[in-house]
Amino acid sequence: MDAGFTTEQEEIRRTLRELLHKRCGAQEARAAVDRPQGYDAGLWATLSEQLGLPGLALPERYGGAGCSATELALAGEETGRVLAPSPLLATAVLAAPLVLATGTKAQRAELLPRIADGTLTAALAAPAAGLALTGDNGGDWAGGGRAGGVQARRGHGGGADGEGGGWRLYGEIEHVLDGHSAGMLLVAAHTGGFARSRTLVFLVPADADGLVRVRQTALDATRPLARLQLRNVQARLLGDESGDGLGALARLGDFAAAFLACEAVGAADRVLERTVEYVKQREQFGRAIGSFQAVKHRLADVYVQVQAARSAAYYAAWATVHGERVGGLALAQGLEALRAAAGEAIQLHGGIGFTWEHDVQRYFKRAAGDELLFGPVHRLRAHAADAARLFEVAGQPEVAV
Fold first, then answer.
1. In a 10 Å sphere around its CB, with 0-12 CB exposed, 13-18 middle and 19+ buried, how is residue 30 labelled?
2. How does pLDDT run across 189-230, given as a tens digit for each residue?
3. Rounded to whole angstroms, how far apart are CA atoms 277 and 75?
4. pLDDT reading at 395 higher than 60
5. Which CATH number fits domain 7-88: 3.30.365.10, 1.10.3720.10, 1.10.3080.10, 1.10.540.10?
6. pTM for the complete prediction?
C-alpha cells in the first residue's frame, strides 16, 4: 500500500472541503435536515454537476468519473467533517455499486447515468444485518424463517425478469436511509417459499402503486430514515435469478464500512479541532483551561485515537479495491474514535456542550446513530475475529473455561 495520496485524490479532497465550507455550515445543515427530503437539493445538485460526486466511482461509460471506490471513501471524510446531510451514502455507496455489480446491461444503462449526474437518488431497503458487518447475513429477514422481511412472489403476465408484473412484493421494512425521498428503491426480499427460500434484490420506483413511505424520527437528523410498506407492489428483479443476493450485499457491506469509517474519522477530526480551539479561549482561575495538564492529556489521548482510526480507515479505503475485507474493523475504530472525541468535546465545552443550540451534540449523535445502524462496535470486532478465525487453535474452536 502506498500511504501517500495521488494528485487527483488531493484535488478531490481540497475542492470538496472548500465547497462544503462555503455551502454547508452549521446553520445550512440545520435548515437542510428540516426540509421534506432531509437535505439541501441545491447543494446536492452542485455536488453532482460541479464535482460529479455521485458518479465518482462509476465507469465513464455510464457518465461517471471512472475513479475507484477509494476516492469515494476519501471524499466521505470531507462530508463527515461537516456532517453534510445528503443522499450520497444511500445513493452512491449503497445503491449504485449494487446496480453496477448485479444489474443487467439494460438496467445499468438505464439507472447509472442518472445516478451519476445526480438526477436520480436511490436507497437500499435491506436491514443493516444484510451487509454482514456484525454476523452472518442470513436469518429470518433473508428467508431463514417462516416470517420476517419482505416477501416476493411471482405475479401473472410476467417473465423471469419480473417485467410486466412478474414479481409482487409484500411486507414492511424500517430504518431505510433516505427511503422517504429516493427516486428508486432497491428492495431485498426473499422468495421461493420456506423450503427453498432465497434472497433477491428488486427495483421499485418511488411512485409504485401500493408503496407507502413514512419518514421516521432519527437520533441523527442528518441520516433521515423511513419506514416502507409494500402492499402488492409491482417490482423488477435486479439482475437475474441466478444471482446471489446475500453475497452481493455482503460484498457491498465491506465498502460501505470503509466509507463510513472515513466519514467517522472526518467528523472526529473536526470535533477535536473545535474542542482545541475552545479550550484555548475558555478561562478558569484566570487562565485558559487548555493550559491545564489534565486537559492536555485528555485531548492528547483523543488525538492518538483519531490518528489510529484514520490509518485504519485509509487502509480500508485502499483495501476495498484490492480484495481485502477489513472495512468492519476500520468502522469499529472510527466509531470509537468519534464517540471519544465527541464525548470529550461535550465535557470540555461545559454547560453548553450538550445543548441543542451548540453543534458538538450533533457529532455525538452521529457516532451513536451510526453505531445503532451499523454496529455496535463490539459486534463489528467480534465478527471480524470470527471471520479471521482468531480464536481457533489447530483448526478447532477454542473452548472457553
1. middle
2. 988 765 567 889 999 999 999 999 999 999 999 999 999 999
3. 25
4. no
5. 1.10.540.10
6. 0.92
CA dist 309 to 77, 91, 331, 333, 373, Å?
A: 12, 25, 8, 5, 19
Q: What is the CATH number of domain 123-243?
A: 2.40.110.10
In the 8-state DSSP scheme, what is residue 399?
P
Domain boundaries, the chain: 7-88, 123-243, 249-393
Q: Is the dihedral of CA 14, 20, 26, 29 positive or negative?
A: negative
Nearest to 237 by CA among 204, 195, 208, 193: 204
Cβ partners under 8 Å of residue 256, min gap 6: 89, 93, 94, 131, 133, 327, 374
Cα 323 → chain centroid: 20
Same fold, 7-88 and 249-393: no
Burial 151-168 (b: 16+ CB within 10 A, else e): bbeeeeebeebbeeebbb
Cell of 73: 471513501
Considering only the top CATH level, what class is 249-393?
Answer: mainly alpha
